[in-house]
Amino acid sequence: MLGASPPQEEGFAPSEKLAGLLAAKRDDGGPWIGADERAYFDELPARAKMLFDQVAKTELVSEPEHLRQILSLRLPVAQIELFLNDKCVVCHSDPAVQDRPEMLLSTDPKAAGSPAHMDLRESVSDVHFRRGLSCAGCHGGNPDDDEMADEIYDRWPDADKRARDRAWIPKFCARCHADPAFMRGFAPALPTDQYAKYRESRHGQLLLGKRDSKAAQCVSCHGAHGIRGPQSPRSKVHPKQVPETCGACHADAEHMAGYRLPNGKPLPTDQLADFKKSVHGRALLERGDLGAPACNDCHGNHAALPPSITSIAQVCRTCHAANGEFFDGSKHKEAFDREGWPECIQCHGNHAVAKTDDSMLSEDHSPLCYDCHRENANDSEKCNSTAKYFHESITTLAQGSESLSALVTSFDERGLDAEPLSEVTQELHDVLKDTRSRVHASDRSEFDDVAKRGRELINQGRQLEQQAEAEYRFRTNGLRAALGVMVLLGILLYLKIRQIESRG
Q1: Within 13 Å and on the Cβ side, how many CA atoms surround 333?
Q2: How far apart, in whole angstroms, are the C-alpha atoms of residue 212 and residue 199?
Q3: Which residue among 150, 321, 404, 408 is buried most deeply as judged by most CB within 10 Å?
Q4: Helices within 156-241 (DSSP H only)
Q5: Nearest Cα to Cα of residue 203 among 240, 351, 195
Q6: Which tens digits make up the pLDDT trace of 105-144?
C-alpha cells in the first residue's frame, strides 16, 4: 500500500536523526514527508539511503522541510548521489540556512522569493549537473568543503559589474567550451569553436567590441542553471523553441530600440510574428516538422549574422537545391546579379515566406511577375507570355492530377484494377512537382522537357479510364445476361415442376 514502510533493506537502518526527519510532524499534526516522498525513499538502494543518513548526521540536512524538497525531486539514483555528495547544492537548497532568497535553490522560486534561475528542479536537470559538473564547476571551490573558499569570491566579477558589463560571460564559458582537452573528457563530439564563431557574430561584435550588454550571449540563449541539450523539447535551443528564444530580444520593441539596418532604418521587430505565419513557421511550430528551418538555420548559431545579398540564395539552397540549380542558368539570374537583388526573397520574402501557389504566376490573382516585368523589363511580351504559359501548363497538369487521383478512388470503390492508373497518377504528381521547380529556370524549353511528359501521362490516364469503363460495362452486361439466363432457367424449372405435379 502506498505510504506504508516496507521492511528495512538488509544492511541499512536509519540513524536516529534521519528517522526523526522522516517521521517529523507539522504543527497541524500532518507528516512533513508525504506518502509519495516516503515511497520514493523506501525504493532507493541502500547506498543512496546511506547518503541521506550521512547528510542527516552531519546536519547538512537538518530540517524535515529541506528533506521533503530533496525527496520531492524524485531523482534517479545516479543523480541523487551526485546531489547528496555536493555540499554546495545541498546547502543552497536549505531554506533554514539561506537567509538571502537570491542564494536559495528552491523547488518553488516564486513562493520562496528566489530568482527564476534558482529553480532547484531545473538545476538538477542541467546538462552540466548530470555529467557531474555542479556549482563548483562554474563558481569555483570544492563541493566537499564545509566552508566557501576564497576562490569562489575571486572567480567572478563583482555583482554590479556582472550586471553592467556582460562581456565576461562568453569568455567565462569558453574556459571549458573552447578547450578541446577539457571537453574531450565530457563531450568529445561537441565543437570547441563556439567562442571563436561568437566573436565574429553580430552579437559578439556588439558585446565584445562595443561593450553593448544588451547583445545576446551564452546565457541569453542557453539559460543559466537549467541548461539542456538541443534534443530536449524543454531546451531553449530545441528547434521548436528557437523562434521564441530569439524573439525574446528581437520581438521586443523596447529592447531593440536604437538598432538599425545597414540602410539606416530601424531594425524591425515583427520577424517572430511573420515567421509564425509563414510556411516554415507553421511546419515547425504547428506540425512539429523538425526539418523545417528556424532562425538559426538561416542566420547561424554562435556565428549569427544577417545573410548578405550574395549568401541568401546559398542559405535557401540548403533545402531548396533544385530550385537554385534551375535559377543559376536563367535570365533572371543575370538580371538579379546586375541589379544587386537578393535571390529567393525578392519573390518569396524572408521571415513571412508564404506557401507557394500556382496563382503566383497568374496575372489575375498575383501580379508578382507582371509588376516586375512592367517596371524592369519594359513590359516585355516574351517575359509575360512565358509566365502565362507556365501558369496555364501547370494548371492543366494540376487539374489532370486531381482528376486522375479521384479516378483511382473511384476504381477502388467499384472493384476495378486501380494499380496501373495509380502508378500513372504518382508519376504525374512527381512531374507536376518538377515543373513547378523548373519555373525558376524561366525557360520554356527546359520547362517543356518535363511538362510534355505530364501531358502524356494525363492522356495515358484517360486511356486507362476508357479501358476500365469498357471492362466495367462488359462485366456489368455479362452479369445482367447471366442473371437473365438464371431467371429464365428458374422459370422453366418452375414450369416443369408444375407440369410433373399436374400429371400426378
Answers
A1: 14
A2: 13
A3: 404
A4: 159-164, 168-177, 180-184, 194-200, 202-204, 210, 218-222
A5: 195
A6: 999 999 999 999 999 999 999 999 988 888 888 888 888 8
Between CA 9 and CA 241 the distance in angstroms is 44
Q: Which set of grid coordinates corresponds to residue 309?
A: 545579398
Domain boundaries defined on the chain: 157-227, 356-489
DSSP 383-443: HHHHHHHHHHHHHHHHHHHHHHHHHHHHHHHHT---HHHHHHHHHHHHHHHHHHHHGGGT-
SS3 state at 158:
coil
Asked if 414 contacts 472 with a C-beta cutoff of 8 angstroms, the reply is: yes
Q: What percent of the chain has pLDDT over 90?
A: 63
Grid cell 547561424 — which residue?
300
- CB within 8 Å of 502: residues ≥ 6 apart: none
Is residue 176 within 8 A of residue 195, CB to CB? The reply is no
Chain position carrying cell 524535515: 64
Question: Per residue, what are the HEC states of 421-433?
Answer: HHHHHHHHHHHHH
**399 residue type, one letter:** Q
For the entire predicted model, the pTM comes to: 0.82
Q: Which residue has the cell 521548436?
A: 240
